Amino acid sequence: MTTLVQRWRAHSSLTALAGFAVAAVLLFAVAPAVLSDFRLNLLAKFLCFAIVAVGIGLAWGRGGMLTLGQGVFFGIGAYIMAMHLQMADAARLGNDVPEFMEIAGIRELPSFWTPFASAPVALLGILVLPALVAAALGYGVFKRRVKGAYFAILSQALAAALAILLTGQQAIGGFTGLSDFRAFFGFKLSDPVNRQMLFFIAAGTLLVVVALVRQLMHSRYGELLVAVRDQEERVRFLGYDPANVKIVAYVVAAFFAGVAGALFTPIVGIISPADIGVVPSIAFLIGVAIGGRTTLLGPVLGAIGVAWAQTALSEEFPSGWTYLQGVLFIVVVGFVPAGLAGLWPMLKGLLDNRFRRTANPPAAVVVEALPESATEKVESR
After folding, report:
1. Which candidate, 299, 360, 316, 309, places its Cα nearest to that of 59?
2. Counting beta carbons within 10 angstroms of the beta carbon of residue 245, is it exposed (0 to 12), middle (13 to 18) or buried (19 or more)?
3. pLDDT class of 137 with cuts at 50, 70, 90
4. Of all helices (H) and strands (E), which one includes residue 356?
5. How far apart are alpha carbons 122 and 58 in whole angstroms?
6. Which of 13, 35, 57, 264 sits at 20 to 30 Å (Cα–Cα) from 304?
């Protein structure tokens, strides 16, 4: 038995390495050679969504936490990066405040902007603040055993509250947000080579994130997370605290979302409340559901596919894409709960059953009358 387990793990590891090698070739060699600069930048944007989706797949698919507010953590990372880029541009031009503040009549830099003028502090904030907010929120929610629809509504309300708060703050761009970034840590964003560099950073980050989540899924913690999802009370009876298990998954998902938001800002060139509110948070979730929330690559492919479809179809059917997105979500949840990643196993199972029945037709059953004593024995058994 031990030998079989070791062989299975070795085969799984080799398959994963081969998959990562193929993905690396596609992202770092094929995509830059085939796609135009515009399409490559668009793919980089989709990769940011995929990074968020990987975290949602861990928290929702493996942990059962319906995270409807990932836009909060995405927005924290995005706005910290935007604030740093704005101040770096202002310092390069010799201004005391960013240009949008001068237009709005703000002559003095707000105090909460000052720390993010430093690149190390901004990077540290991107990595730490989303995780800290998620840890505080998770501790307050999961320790009180709030779960299911109540947790989903609470997380969605936080996303809506953050978007409303940012809309009314002129010191961070208000409704229009922050945009017109000229450089990214000293590299001009107008240079196509630097734009390609951002794509490579996003692609490399996605591969690292997928590798980390795969390691978590195949670890003892991953098994415990699934156990909490399926039998929380039994896990508590065994001496584990399900709240701590959920908090870790929730913090990891928030960390990934913050990193994705920080990459999204220079790639797209703008961040506004419309990018982090309720609608974007639900869009993240729809991509994960369509791709397959319980699998490793399902959230990635689903997020990229939904984002691509939205970009392609919304140009031709601006008012119809929202309805199509809703229909897709309903069809997947109602008829294909495992998502697109579960279609092949389902079809394979149906075909195997059909071929098995064709190859081995059921034999005719001959019913013979049993003696009365034998019948009584069977009934007694």
Report:
1. 299
2. buried
3. very high
4. helix 343-359
5. 26
6. 13
* Residue 164 buriedness (CB in 10 A; 0-12 / 13-18 / 19+): exposed
What pLDDT does residue 380 have? Answer: 45
In tens, the pLDDT along 42-63 reads 999 999 999 999 999 999 989 9
Distance CA 172, CA 163 (A): 12
151, HSE (Cβ side, Cα atoms, 13 Å): 25
The C-alpha angle with vertex 64 and arms to 144 and 218, in degrees rounded to 5, equals 115
Contact indicator for 339, 293 with CB cutoff of 8 Å? yes
Per the model's pLDDT, the better-predicted residue between 258 and 109 turns out to be: 258
CA distance 142 to 247: 7
Rounded to the nearest 10°, the torsion over CA 47, 57, 245, 134 is: 50
Q: For 306-360, write each residue's pLDDT tens digit.
A: 888 888 776 676 666 677 777 777 777 777 777 777 666 666 666 667 666 666 6
Sign of CA pseudo-dihedral 305, 349, 213, 76: positive
Q: Tokens for 292, please give them.
A: 């397959």
Strand partners, 183: 188
- Backbone dihedral angles phi then psi of residue 183, each to the nearest 5 degrees: -145, 160
- Hey, is 33 helix, strand or coil? helix
User: Residues 160, 257, 86, CA angle at the centre, nearest 5°?
Assistant: 80
In this prediction the pTM is 0.86
Lowest mean pLDDT among 19-33, 108-122, 297-311, 338-352: 338-352
Q: How far is Cα 88 from Cα 83, in angstroms, rounded to an integer?
A: 9
Model confidence at 260, pLDDT cuts 50, 70, 90, reads very high
Calculate the CA 274 to chain-centre distance. 18
